[in-house]
Amino acid sequence: MLAMLGSIGMTMIILACALPTYNLWWPIFVVLFYILCPIPTMIAKRSQNADDGVRAPNAMFATIGIVLSSFALPIVLARASVIQWGACLLTLAGNAVAYTSFLAYYFGFESGDSSMW
Q1: What is the pLDDT along the chain (117 residues), one digit of tens a residue?
Q2: Residues 6+ apart with CB under 8 A from 90
Q3: What phi and psi values does residue 51 have, to the nearest 5 degrees?
């Protein structure tokens, strides 16, 4: 199920780039945010210091900033007339599907070790 959701999300993003109507590859840069998204949480989970009460909110803040940036990038590109609004909507839908699969993975497999949150 998770693989299917991830595939659908990436397919929507690739369609936003490759359809002949849009034919611009700027929306593919949201994939960088997919790579950056789990890094603050992984760093905060790896540290087992006394200041975990400080690291968890900082990691959550950084992760939320990365996720919001991945939703804001296509909107900014569409407002600046770099991409069309149809490509923007496909990218936003792909983001929603991809982040849904990330959340499903986290709550399905990683929530047993939720000592950080």
Answers
A1: 899 999 999 999 999 999 999 989 999 999 999 999 989 988 887 776 656 667 778 888 999 999 999 999 999 999 999 999 999 999 999 999 999 998 888 888 765 555 544
A2: 12, 13, 15, 16, 27
A3: -95, 35
